[in-house]
Amino acid sequence: MGSENLQVSMDEFLPLRDVVFNTLRKGILTGELKPGERLMEIHLANRLGVSRTPIREAIRKLELEGLVTMIPRRGAEVAQITEKSMKDVLEVRRALDALCAELACERISEEEKQRLKESCAEFERAIKTKDATVIAKADVALHDIIVEATGNQRLVQLVNNLAEQMYRYRFEYIKDESQHERLVEEHRMIYDSILRKDCAAAAEAARMHIDNQERAVMRQIRLDNGQEQP
Question: What is the pLDDT of residue 1?
Answer without folding.
Answer: 46
